[in-house]
Write a structure and sequence with these properties.
Elements: H1 7-25, H2 29-37, H3 43-70, H4 76-91, H5 98-112, H6 115-126, H7 132-160, H8 165-183, H9 186-189, H10 196-201, H11 206-211, H12 214-237, H13 242-245
Helix pairs in contact: 1-6, 1-7, 1-8, 2-3, 3-5, 3-12, 4-5, 4-8, 6-7, 7-8
């Protein structure tokens, strides 16, 4: 990291938090309205679709934090995640069947799980000693403002696009997230170059390090089991008569 980050990087980080507010939380209640009014889904499939995103975000949070912590290019995770979210949102209105929707929601949740770790890592990289609290506070101000602005914009767009516009709003936010992240100067968030001896000692494959961490694997296994149990409960709770009205 450079001794004094440029003003451009600070501005870009603030606006990145603004545009990421809607994506990191998902479309939430707007999705339920869309599935109920546009696709005429019952409450069971709607609950499963929303739960799939939230549970995949929980499961993906730890691996996402691990990836962000290990990479030296701190902007890349959120750029890739935004591209995934934008592409998925573009095709979302064409989806109709429950299995495809669940897969799509899991992909969105896993991509969204990279946002918070990356935003914190970028704030830490830009902040000098003693400035991290102030940086996070300002970022959160922009984040909360983004929550309000995205909710209002999404509601208005949904009103005039028969609810399908919520996905195009999400795609737009993902595009602006990508632009904001790329606007951060790479040199301002790059960690100091390690010494050759340290670099050689830390050259360990990503998969080998993950598979060798038993506590991390147990944690992932427990979270995956909980996520599966929750989906099974929702599935069993669906009324028997939902077969006729279930999306196909």
């Amino acid at each position: 990291m450079s001794e004094k980050p440029s003003k451009r990087s600070w501005v870009a980080l603030n606006w990145l938090n603004f545009f990421a507010a809607d994506i990191s939380d998902g479309v939430g209640p707007f999705l339920a309205v869309y599935l109920a009014s546009n696709l005429h889904w019952q409450s069971g499939p709607i609950g499963m679709a929303i739960a799939a995103t939230q549970l995949s975000m929980v499961v993906g949070q730890s691996p996402a934090g691990f990836v962000v912590d290990r990479t030296r290019r701190k902007r890349i995770p959120i750029v890739v995640a935004s591209l995934v979210v934008g592409t998925t949102s573009l095709f979302w209105p064409a989806l109709r069947s429950l299995p495809v929707v669940l897969v799509c929601q899991v992909v969105l949740g896993l991509a969204a799980s990279f946002y918070i770790p990356t935003l914190v890592a970028l704030a830490a990289a830009l902040s000098r000693k003693g400035e991290f609290d102030r940086t996070i506070s300002k970022n959160q101000s922009f984040n909360h403002a983004g929550n309000v602005a995205s909710a209002v914009l999404t509601g208005v767009v949904a009103r005039f696009t028969t609810n399908a516009g919520i996905f195009y709003c999400m795609m737009g936010f993902a595009v602006f997230c990508t632009i904001s992240a790329l606007y951060i100067a790479p040199g301002d968030v790059a960690p100091p170059e390690p010494a050759r001896q340290e670099e050689g000692a830390r050259k360990k494959s990503f998969s080998r390090e993950v598979l060798g961490n038993k506590a991390f694997l147990v944690f992932l296994l427990v979270l995956s089991a909980l996520a599966l149990c929750a989906l099974l409960v929702l599935w069993r709770a669906m009324p028997e008569t939902a077969g006729a009205s279930q999306p196909s």
